[in-house]
Fold these 2 entries.
Entry 1:
Amino acid sequence: MSQATPDRRMAELSAYRERQVELVSQHGRRSARGNWHAHARIGIMGGTFDPIHNGHLVAASEVAWVYDLDEVIFVPTGRPVFKLDKRVTNEEDRYLMTVIATASNPKFTVSRVDIDRPGVTYTIDTLRDIRAQYPEAELFFITGADAVAEIMKWKDANSMFDIAHFVAVTRPGYSSKVPLPEGKVDMLEIPALAISSTDVRERARNGEPVWYLVPDGVVQYIGKHGIYDEQ
Ligand code: ATP
Ligand code: MG
């Protein structure tokens, strides 16, 4: 057996890693479900997350399963363009609740791109920022069926479809009457939960329980900081 010095071992390891990266870029990669994909597959779940609730988490988890995603990035909005006339909770509270809610899922991560970008949040900017971070990945923007009806009103709608696939998940109580852009948006029927952030805020404000509508850590965060007490 050869006596490798630490330096030599490090050099071997780094050569091995480089070779792995080269193989992946030539031949693709194997997902957790055992399928080969040419590139990483990444979901983007944008939302106000005021607060994040189990409906968001189930939707992201289901899309990750069906589309064989490696990761879902939750992106809390900065100043949401369609809620400019409404009071929205401080972005750091919304960001922290999103981190707490997603921490236990190894596939879920949280990005600050929208809250760190000054001004109103437009989804096209979110997509461009994530694309810059993952030039090679296949991107999937996840949205609720209610939000997708608005898509064509979104800034630079057509360039968004060049950057990412769009997956619209069904949501109880919302039916899209607006025709979707032909072939641009997948509709996915999921076992969606009849939960909205609006209901959660209202319940918290009235002192009603929000257990099991949002993850345990978020229940505690809302109580500890009293974030919906005064609205
Ligand atoms: P609000 O009531 O304040 O509008 P919300 O519950 O709609 O909050 P958002 O942060 O606006 O939550 O939603 C982010 C995204 O998640 C949107 O695309 C929305 O359609 C989707 N979504 C929200 N709730 C659900 C749910 N229960 N099931 C599936 N998708 C959902
Ligand atoms: Mg909403």
Note: The CA atoms of residues 62 and 190 lie 7 Å apart.
Entry 2:
Amino acid sequence: MSATIVAADVLVTSPGRNLVTLKITTSDGLVGWGDATLNGRELAVASYLRDHVCPILVGRDPAMVEDTWQYLYRGVYWRRGPVTMAAIGAVDLALWDIKGKVCGQPVYQLLGGRVRDRILSYTHATGWDVAALLDAVAAQRERGFRAVRVQTGVPGLESVYGVTKDGGAYEPAGRGVAPVEETWDTAAYLRYLPGALAEVRAAVGPELELLHDAHHRLTPNQAARLGKALEPVDLFWLEDVTPAENQDVLRRVREQTTVPLAIGEVFTSVWEFQQLITEQLIDFVRAAVSHVGGITPLRRIAALAEVWQVWLAPHGPSDVSPIALAAATHVGLATPNFAIQEYMGYPDRVHEVFRHAWTYADGHLHPGDAPGLGIEVDEALAARFPYEPAYLPVARRLDGTLTDW
Ligand code: GCO
Ligand code: MG
């Protein structure tokens, strides 16, 4: 007799930031863990799971990973969107975790085994001015990183995406019941950034990989101008130049510049990547393994991208939990067209609540060889940190109109 799912429970904890976790328990006593965190909308995913998904998981065969994905995606009629897909992603991760434990194998073995010894990772360095940014880059190089995302302040602006003024650790979600409002001026950013990044390149030398995130804020024309201006900096990638809801416009950017483009952390399905990949409008797919619906669809996206020489580079900020990071590293070790894994890091308490087999050393991540995803959640410790409302900021232009954050 095959095992059945006997319980599916949702844990919401805030050990430094809000994280939502799905726990699936089987009749033979195995437990699988999935990440269901959606920054600023955590409780919506928790409710989607608790109220609509957990009850129908009970009684199902945990071995049927693909069928359960299809059941939750096609079987619901209302499909896609970040809340739905983060919920499906949590189920998919938990079922892969269980399958690994049943087989006594780390998930990467079930995905075909390793194609590399370890996976390259990049982290963030931020500084309000170039001197502070160079200090931050030096500190990350000390930690072994060979690839660093660089974000700076902009003269004349009080706050800028991805940068803290006091040099402290960056966490975009501000605690409180309403989002913080930031002011944004694209013209000032475009005037300042190319010179600032040229200074960074001159200081760090040619070998360090530098990345930059424009966070959806430019028009196609501005993106093309910025891409051209940054060509001498030799970026590993320029991320999210436009909101990319209108994907056709990226052709104009591609025609104008050879800067490598990365897009996709807010996309939730293979279909949102289809045009970008098949028309080669981007170089790197930034899907988050949990937000895109799990390991099952991430593998499909990777396979489509491989055909078109597009590379996989999963999203890995502190707002996807160490469970999602585990899943991304398993995929990364086993996927030929995997390029790099973002590793922003976590507050210490997060590592205590989510004990993980994955390790960071010398600029690289490894998923470890524990069965499944290699995660143990300290539920008693998690329960000591209840949910606190926290939201990403919103951004307004100088004239007060709302713009993309
Ligand atoms: C990145 C991202 C994040 C997002 C965050 C929003 O490239 O890492 O842009 O830092 O801003 O995930 O919740
Ligand atoms: Mg990004």
Note: The pocket of D-gluconic acid (ligand 1) is lined by residues 39, 172, 213, 215, 239, 265, 317, 319, 342, 392 (CB under 6 Å).
